[in-house]
Predict the 3D structure of the following.
Amino acid sequence: MKARVHVMLKDGVLDPQGAAVKHALGALGFDGVDGVRQGKVIELDLADGATETQVGEMCEKLLANTVIESYEIEID
Amino acid sequence: MKARVHVMLKDGVLDPQGAAVKHALGALGFDGVDGVRQGKVIELDLADGATETQVGEMCEKLLANTVIESYEIEID
């Protein structure tokens, strides 16, 4: 079973990586970029029988810092 | 317009971040994690009229190192 977790900084939390990418895109001549947020994606290859609940626990305990980050789980 | 870009290390490229996450999950008692790959996700807020081709150019020029990374574009 495959699971994909997206971890993004919550709205309102300063995202210096995203700001740097936005600046660099502007410097390269890409206009019309109004905002950039950068996060992490973690692809997990899990034994059969793993549940979304377990993946949620992994996020809470390790993958995301839930004070400043939110996460989304996709199960394939 | 919103675009989301996933940048992952290509298969066969060593992923030390993913390996560290796999090890840490095991240490926390999560069994059955057979593999972990970690990548980046970049959310772009673009002016209307931007095209997937433009986002592809951004990936080629800045967002991904195409020697070792592959990218996927999702347009919302």
Remarks:
- Chain B has one domain: 2-75.
- The domain at 2-75 of chain B is CATH 3.30.1280.10 (Mth169; Chain: A ,).
- The CA atoms of residues 20 and 68 of chain B lie 19 Å apart.
